[in-house]
Design a protein that fits this description.
Blueprint (H helix, E strand, L loop, with lengths): L2 H6 L7 E5 L4 E2 L4 H11 L4 E5 L18 E5 L5 H5 L25 H12 L5 E4 H5 L5 E3 L4 E3 L2 H4 L4 E3 L4 H12 L13 E5 L7 E4 H4 L30 E2 L5 E3 L13 E4 L3 H6 L1 H13 L8 E6 L2 E5 L8 H8 L6 E2 L9 H6 L2 E3 L1 E2 L10 H5 L4 E2 L2 H14 L6 E2 L1 E3 L13 H6 L19 H11 L6 E2 L7 H4 L3 H10 L4 E7 L3 H7 L4 H17 L5 E8 L6 H13 L8 E2 L7 H8 L20 H11 L7 H10 L56 H11 L1
Parallel strand pairs: 1-3, 1-4, 4-5, 5-8, 10-12, 10-13, 13-14, 17-21, 20-22, 23-24, 24-25
Antiparallel strand pairs: 2-16, 6-7, 8-9, 9-15, 11-12, 14-15, 18-19
Helix pairs in contact: 2-7, 10-22, 18-20, 21-23
Length: 704
């Protein structure tokens, strides 16, 4: 991280310099640490510039110019999600910064860092990657500016973009550059994106609007043209493929590409300009992108941006178990860089005693970015690798008390779950293996995970192994023995799960299971907890204002929460992250889970601050500060019968002292406060209002 460290190692120059928006923590939960250690294992000298001052290029000269390239990442989070709430308010802290200090990274960090690196050293090669670059690899809707933006590759003026888990791609890029190949000539690496002027003549171009026609996308044919165009005939294959100006074949209408030609076919998405001006075409492009996400059958994609083509190579091949073991067996120090001294980094504090056992998620939740980034094929480590890491934590990490805080990943219980047939898996184009129901080809056997749990807690010096990753409960109920193991040995009083909603409308747009699966899991969990003599509770998480959610849906959820005695301490409003399927719904009002046409299903979108706040208020129906807006909404919905003090009613009719004008443009008096509750299954009583200093003095005089 400094010239002095370089000289201590005898280095004159770094081969690769990684610039990151996070503090440098040498732990396998941090992407820049994994890529740094992987490149180091290839014999390369790697420098890291963490959270540089982006206001000038000087901080980017700290280690001198790299011999091969700058690797730019915003860090473990998208910089806009990191800095702004779902209501676009600036956050007061940053978990990836020493002391939790906010403001240590710029908005759209990848773009800013790449530009500063270019200013620091003219002509240097720049590769961008990480979650921010990965989710912005094509034209994408940007929630913070409420418009469709170009691929971040072009805005950052980078040479290459690496998306998804980048170990394979970054090693191949570094190896080929070290052998003398120029970065601008490396165009065939899976999991990369590059910009070019035109397609090579060897490629067969497939127009995405002919795969799934969204409706009229071009001006009508001029009847006075000298050479009239042929109209498509839906029942007959097209004539031999035409060729464009570059010589590339262009497949139109119903002509199908033979399997032997699949490797050299590329799907042309609607251009950036088309997607930016037509929300239906944007939703269509999003659907095609997600259909072409299986590494076993995905084709290359290309999208025109002005005079340039942005080319997306097929997704990276998932790592094997042996490769995963190698990556996680690299010599991570599992602690922040010594230059931070005693400063606490909140994100590190949360994961320092946790172990990642898998990558990827086949759930396909539309609001989530895991599938777009890590893929839906589960990549699992071996038992021996996981147990070695637990022993390393026990023996080397300061402050370890014998408790492993988590064995998990994107989800807690997808370890070693996969399709029963590799051939079916390679051909599958479903966005989820568990929606609308669990695929019959999916192996749901949890025995490998149960055995791993048992071996982990049997290690000497290990007192307890907790599971903090979210449990996919619709999978868990397929293995009651797993639920027993979880309840009896791996829950510290509370277990978090994510039903997200109970109404069919929003659940179908989220691709989440119905509430019946939740009830089945709860019954098993409660039974096994009681059998173990433990008082344990489920912590359900819910999302407000998700596409497809109506006011009536939120009212139904609020009544369900009250009936079950839940009082949410914190709630999450839907945040349209780049490239997520739900974001395409939010922007277009269409449902990309089905074929997109001009007349296809329309999705109700809760937009606007007032509606989003109302939906959050339904989740916190118990907070007196929300009662005025809820009373108004209930009257408007014709449900004034739910206003009152009865058990079946949602909010009281009276206005408690200190909250009677909240939500009506008046500030709450300083001597009042809302309920202090936790997100548990236990009902809580309201805290007594604080007395003002004047009232306390008056009461004291009275007692005297």
């Amino acid at each position: 991280m400094s010239r002095s460290e370089m000289f201590a190692l005898g280095w004159v120059q770094c081969d690769v310099i990684i610039v990151t928006g996070d503090a440098y923590v040498d732990h396998p939960s941090f992407g820049m640490a994994i890529i740094g250690r992987v490149l180091e294992a290839q014999g390369l000298r790697v420098g890291i510039i963490a959270q540089p001052d982006w206001r000038s290029p000087e901080a980017f000269r700290a280690l001198g110019p790299p011999r091969l390239f700058f690797g730019i990442t915003a860090g473990n989070m998208d910089s806009m999600v990191n800095r702004y709430t779902a209501d676009r308010r600036v956050r007061s802290d940053d978990a990836y910064t020493p002391g939790g200090e906010a403001g240590r990274r710029p908005d759209r960090s990848v773009i800013v860092y790449a530009q500063r690196a270019r200013e620091a050293y003219r002509g240097v090669s720049v590769v961008i990657g990480g979650i921010e670059a990965s989710l912005r690899r094509i034209a994408h809707f940007d929630y913070w500016s409420e418009k469709v933006r170009r691929s971040v590759l072009l805005d950052a003026k980078a040479d290459l973009l690496v998306y998804g888990n980048g170990e394979r791609a970054i090693c191949e890029i570094a190896r080929r550059m070290a052998a003398g190949e120029r970065l601008e000539d490396i165009r065939d690496v899976r999991g990369t994106v590059f910009a070019g002027r035109r397609l090579d003549g060897a490629w067969i171009e497939i127009d995405s609007t002919h795969l799934e026609a969204p409706g009229p996308v071009a001006p009508p044919v001029d009847p006075y043209a000298v050479s009239p165009a042929l109209a498509p005939d839906a029942g007959v294959s097209a004539a031999p493929a035409a060729r464009d100006a570059s010589g590339a074949q262009v497949v139109r209408f119903m002509r199908r590409v033979r399997n032997s030609e699949r490797e050299r076919s590329v799907i042309r998405l609607p251009s950036y300009e088309q997607a930016a001006n037509d929300a239906v075409l944007y939703a269509h492009a999003s659907r095609i992108l997600h259909l072409e996400s299986n590494p076993g059958n995905a084709r290359a994609l290309v999208q025109r941006h002005g005079s340039q083509d942005v080319w997306l190579n097929p997704p990276p091949i998932p790592l094997t178990t042996a490769e995963m073991d190698w990556v996680y067996g690299l010599p991570f120090q599992r602690r922040p860089h010594p230059s931070y001294g005693s400063a606490q980094i909140p994100a590190y504090k949360m994961i320092r005693f946790s172990v990642a056992i898998q990558r990827g998620c086949f759930g396909g939740c539309t609001f989530c970015s895991i599938t777009e980034h890590e893929g839906r094929i589960i990549q699992s480590r071996s038992e021996a690798s996981v147990l070695r890491e637990i022993e390393q934590i026990r023996d080397t990490v300061p402050g370890f008390t014998g408790v492993i805080s988590d064995l998990g990943g994107p989800t807690a219980n997808m370890y070693r779950l996969a399709c029963k047939s590799r051939e079916i898996e390679s051909a599958c184009r479903r966005p989820s293996c568990v929606f609308p129901g669990i695929c019959p080809n999916l192996n749901t056997d949890h025995s490998s995970l149960i055995e791993l749990y048992r071996k982990a807690r049997a290690l000497p010096g290990i007192k307890k192994v907790l599971i903090a990753s979210g449990v996919r409960y619709d999978l868990a109920v397929e293995s009651p023995e797993y639920v027993r193991e979880l309840a009896e040995h791996h829950v510290g009083g509370y277990l978090k799960i994510a039903p997200e909603h109970i109404a069919e409308g929003p659940l179908s747009k989220m691709m989440k299971p119905g509430v019946g699966s939740y009830y089945r899991f709860k019954e098993l969990f409660d039974r096994y907890s009681k059998h173990a003599g433990k008082e344990q509770y489920l912590i359900p998480y819910f999302i407000a204002a998700h596409p497809g959610t109506s006011d009536q849906d939120m009212l139904e959820l609020a009544l369900w929460l009250k009936r079950n005695g839940y009082r949410a301490d914190q709630v999450q409003a839907f945040l349209p992250s780049p490239m997520a399927t739900a974001t395409a719904m939010y922007h277009s009002g269409k449902n990309p889970l089905r074929r997109i046409t001009r007349d296809s299903e329309t999705v109700a979108i809760p937009k606007g601050l007032r509606v989003r706040r109302l939906h959050k208020a339904f989740l916190r129906y118990h907070d007196p500060n929300n009662w005025p807006v809820l009373r108004e909404a209930l009257r408007h919905m014709g449900r004034a019968d739910l206003i009152g003090s009865g058990k079946h009613q949602l909010v009281p009719a009276h206005r408690p002292s200190g909250t009677d004008r909240q939500g009506e443009g008046h500030r709450t008096p300083a001597n009042s406060r809302p309920f202090r509750t936790q997100h548990t299954g236990l009902p809580r009583t309201p805290a007594a209002p604080r007395r003002s200093a004047r009232r306390r003095a008056k009461a004291l005089r009275r007692r005297r």
